[in-house]
Queue: 2 jobs
Job 1
Amino acid sequence: MRRISIFGATGSIGQNTIDLIARDPEGYDVVALTGAGNVARLAEDAVRLGAEVAVTADADRLDDLRTALAGSGVEAAAGADALAEAADRPADWIMSAIVGSAGLVPGLRALRHGTTLALANKESLVCAGPLLLAEAARHGATILPVDSEHSAVFQALVGEDRAAVEQVIITGSGGGLRDWPLERLSEATPEEAGTHPNWDMGQRITIDSASMFNKAMELIETKEFFGLPAERIDTVIHPQSLVHALVQFADGALMAHLGAPDMRHAIGYALNWPERRHLPVDRLDLARVACLDFHSPEAARYPALDLARWVMRRGGLSGAAFNAAKEAALDLFLDRAIRFTDMAPVVEQVLEAMDRAGCLDAAELSLDMVLQTDRDARARARAIAQT
Ligand code: NDP
Ligand code: MG
């Protein structure tokens, strides 16, 4: 039996992970499940899967969680410290699927125990990639990418000479507003931006797909995880979301990864790695697919991409500032305090101001520096939005 924990169990990635492990009850021993606001689902899954402990990130919900777990034998815990402590519980495989930079600390804690961390939480690589990779190396831990594009690149690189990689191309659907006239984008509501043509995901990443802030994050994630320079990483719009990424090698060969848009593929690949086992995902019928379209993203529609390229060149604490400013801008958009098209300018102004003030310089990252930069960038984004 493999001991596994799921951080962010109540979310879209967490629920897809549970779907896979629940199909093989003899295969897994569930250690910790975590959530935040959705205490009812957390408790239900923890009882159903026989978890050791259920943790809500929201300290005020401990009584609710205790009540929901009463008599089940599952321990209840709440708050940030309890979340980090859950990462200390011995496990062979841990899914990191909390949304936002809140996923960084539990992920780092888990790596200290030499575990295998399936990383969906792209924010932790964007904020603190070098810190995460160094922690994994120090403790002999393994990080497996779960973001579909990065899982695709990882799979295309199996058995290959990484020195022969010329370029990595990650695809993006262009999001729910891809075909809107440019001049109408400023009117988009959170509901309109929160609808995705192909993928069924959490609300925040769906809106980030419409702005392509998600792809911007993934460009940085590619640089951090695969250690490639910015000029070797590109993105292309592929409306069908069937090709997830492509790797071009020195001999001109382009290795593409195709599959149905179902996150259970990338999650299952990480769960079964280094083996491949049957997964309950649709198989592609290429004759029915018939066409695969690709085109370059327009800079005016997706300004987040240029910001990501700046961050990739700038390094230091710019990723932490970029992610936090983006999260704050998204909160402001969800609160209807700024427009859809205001998000990128807010992030750009935060980056410019922090760069001018010397706040992005760091020869070596530390967790304290990253968390401080995160707080600073969020506060600046909120202040800029008020002016
Ligand atoms: P969801 O919003 O669906 O779920 C987020 C999870 O994090 C929930 O369990 C939620 O709890 C929990 N959570 C929210 N806020 C906090 C907090 N402050 N502290 C601790 N836990 C918290 O997100 P997704 O599943 O869509 O995404 C999860 C991660 O995976 C993100 O980093 C995303 O970028 C990445 N990802 C997602 C993909 C997808 O298809 N969904 C694809 C590739 C990457 P609760 O619901 O109980 O409030
Ligand atoms: Mg992705």
Note: The first strand starts at residue 2 and ends at 7.
Job 2
Amino acid sequence: MKVLITGGTGYIGSHVVVELLEQGHEVEIIDNLINSKITVLDQIEKITGKKPTFHQVDLLDQPALEEVLTNTHFDLVMHFAGLKSVAESVEQPLKYYSNNITGTINLLSVMQKTEVYNFIFSSSATVYGDQGTGECVETMPTGTGITNPYGKTKYMIEEILKDLAVANPNFNIVALRYFNPIGNHSSGLIGEDPNGIPNNLMPYIMKVAKGELKELSIFGNDYDTDDGTCLRDFIHVVDLAKGHLAAINGLKPGFTTYNLGTGMPTSVLQMVNAFEKISGKSLPHKFAERRPGDLAILYANPSKAKTELNWQTELTVEDAIKDTLTFLAQPQNNP
Ligand code: NAD
Ligand code: UDP
């Protein structure tokens, strides 16, 4: 297939590009490089022996987008491009609604115009809001109790996709609801290394392990869980990437959702302990106040993807930590 990947130089997109190239698909990337580096393309080439075509285009620039989709006819678009900082979205909601929602509408408009109807969207477990149970199933209602604009953009985009699929029955749309992606390709050549102070757990742990940040604050140890810290469904990004290839088989008329998670929650403290054990070094950490908006427990029921897409995770949290250490050992990541 000829696949267009928006956000393809980003953390998850680059891993999906690798899997697609390794399966023989042709890939072109659109990214404005706001949160990724052009050098990712060289790393992809080192892993796969192939360098995807790259277009430095902003999704807010609809004419530029149209040029890319007019010059090449794509069989499928996978849409990763978006801003993803929860904290920043609270401070700058308009930036998030504009970039994520307008960007997606532009992309869908151009797809409709150029008659490209297969679409896979990077959604998030955040659309479930607070269901009270911790376990998320695709049949649950979405959209209530979402605590930040970033999460709301995911919910709103899903609603837009549902409406579009009704209005134009040519569209085959899949929204993949990711849980907590961690780790990187086992080569250590691509991965996540955000600038500044990270919001997410694993990038923060990595900065502490590198000595760039003093210690990890574990947000809350008085939750109603075995060790008092939150439980999350950490999924290895390579498993997540393979879920996208499986999702191609799930494309059918209308709007369909799948959870991509392991179904097996791990606590924040268990993650820290596992990181210390595998790295053989202590990871400075302390317990701190709960972070506003955090749910105690959130994990996937991954049965639908297993039954319908024949996909399930194969890698463990320990694999993800080992691969993270390989990434950190690369000279360019640990100057
Ligand atoms: P990322 O920031 O590494 O990748 C996103 C890419 O999109 C970046 O390369 C960025 O430069 C690009 N981009 C942003 N706005 C753009 C625009 N207007 N035009 C063109 N390019 C633009 O993030 P990621 O972790 O790889 O996430 C990919 C997708 O998955 C995002 O939509 C994110 O919301 C979603 N998601 C991520 C997680 C997670 O924990 N990483 C969880 C759930 C969902
Ligand atoms: N967390 C933490 N310290 C940090 C970052 C995150 O204790 O510096 C916790 C956070 O409270 C949550 C879990 O790690 O319970 C996962 O948080 P993350 O932001 O990575 O993902 P989320 O589940 O919020 O999408």
Note: Residues 35 and 51 are 20 Å apart (CA to CA).
